[in-house]
Amino acid sequence: MSASSDSDSDSEYPFLYEPGWVDWDGEGENIERYSSGGLHPVHLNDFFPTSSPGSEGYRILHKLGYGGFSHVWYGQNLRHGGAALKFIASDQTGKTLEVEINNFLASRSKEEPGFHNVALCLETFQVNGPNGIHDVIATEPALRMSSVLYTSAMDSLDDRVVFRQTLAGLGFIHKHGFVHRDLHVGNIAIEFPFLRTAGVAAIMQSTGHPVCHALLPMAPTSNPPPLPTYVVESAKFCQHFTLTNADTQCFVVKIIDFGCSFRPVTDEPPNPYHHGPPKPPECNLLEMIPGRRLPSTPEDVPENSSNNHPWSELLESERGSTCSGISRCLGPQLVCARRRLGHRLHPPFDPGTE
């Protein structure tokens, strides 16, 4: 980290870092979001109690990821084992359906097709901190597909199983009237039992010890901003552990992150600040096949793939174009979409046709 040459000691953020971002190895975190209405400052070994009966609370062990509107940490709980804890920015708390959707889907029957292909919400609670009140969502821990895509871990997984389970999870979400609206490889994850059951020592061995970057004030201040004392690089699980045959046989695909989701029948879509131009989901799902050319503009999308509808706004578009894209990749090996996704919101779909 280095200080900017035009840093202003009267700035709200007179700290030793490049303005706005802490940067390492091409990654960066916008620390100016640690302000009133923004993110909650979380540190390693922090403990967060919950109000759920029988819950022992969560001890923070590592960071899993971050964004402008939330950050996700790996924590452990005596009752649930390992968990992913998503801390939502204060100015977004209560403004999306994310908590409601997570709790609703978790309450459905475990026997429903696709139930196990959506990350199970273990519990939700709130944290009151210096930047406001934050919703926290504890879910099953899983590795985002984007983090395993080009590692040896992905070589061990069957693409067909990944796609089929993704469709099953999407069908489960649609069956209950929700549109995910942000389906891409960053929001499709792989669950390995190791993440739920490993002890602290095993987790540290698998991820390496957390790499921290201190935030150092450049000038004395009597009213420092509510920043964390340091920021933590996201854990890189796949660089430190290899999958056993048992792991590759019992992996489960999980759809995660419902921050942009809504009910198209009754709700207005949330503010689409997360998105670029609308495009069908196969543009994102094809990222799971290394070497395949990805459409980058609407003109590049295969003809009739999305029926000219923005995929983020219609159940039919989200489901239909996903099936179309996957069927082009897998052909007759694809499990029948009608059997996987059949429910009252969807007409029958033949994966052999466009």
Outline the structure in words:
One of its GO terms (biological process) is spliceosomal complex assembly. It comes from Roridomyces roridus. Its EC number is 2.7.11.1. This protein starts with 20 loop residues before the first strand and ends in a 13-residue tail after the last helix. It is an alpha+beta fold and 354 residues long. Residues 1-11, 272-283, 286-316 and 327-354 have low confidence and may be disordered. It has helices at 98-106, 145-148, 152-155, 159-175, 193-197, 200-207, 245-250, 282-285, 315-330, 337-341, and strands at 21-24, 27-30, 47-48, 58-66, 70-77, 81-88, 121-129, 132-139, 143-144, 188-191, 212-214, 230-232, 252-255. Strand 4 and strand 5 form a beta hairpin. 22% of the residues lie in helices and 19% in strands.
How many helix segments? 10
Write down how many β-strands occur, each being a DSSP E stretch of 2 or more residues: 13
Whole-Å distance between the termini? 51 Å
Average of the residue pLDDT scores:
71
Radius of gyration (Å): 21 Å
Provide the spatial order of strands within the biggest beta sheet.
Answer: 3-4-5-6-8-7
The helix/strand order is: EEEEEEHEEEHHHEHHEEHEHHH
Question: Which residues form runs of ≥5 with pLDDT under 50?
Answer: 1-11, 272-283, 286-316, 327-354
Shape verdict? globular
Strand content: 15-25%
Portion of residues within helices: 10-25%
> How many strands, what sense, and barrel or not for the largest sheet?
6 strands, antiparallel
Sheet/helix structural class: alpha+beta
GO molecular function: ATP binding; protein serine/threonine kinase activity
Keywords: ATP-binding, Kinase, Nucleotide-binding, Serine/threonine-protein kinase, Transferase
Enzyme class: transferase
Protein name: non-specific serine/threonine protein kinase
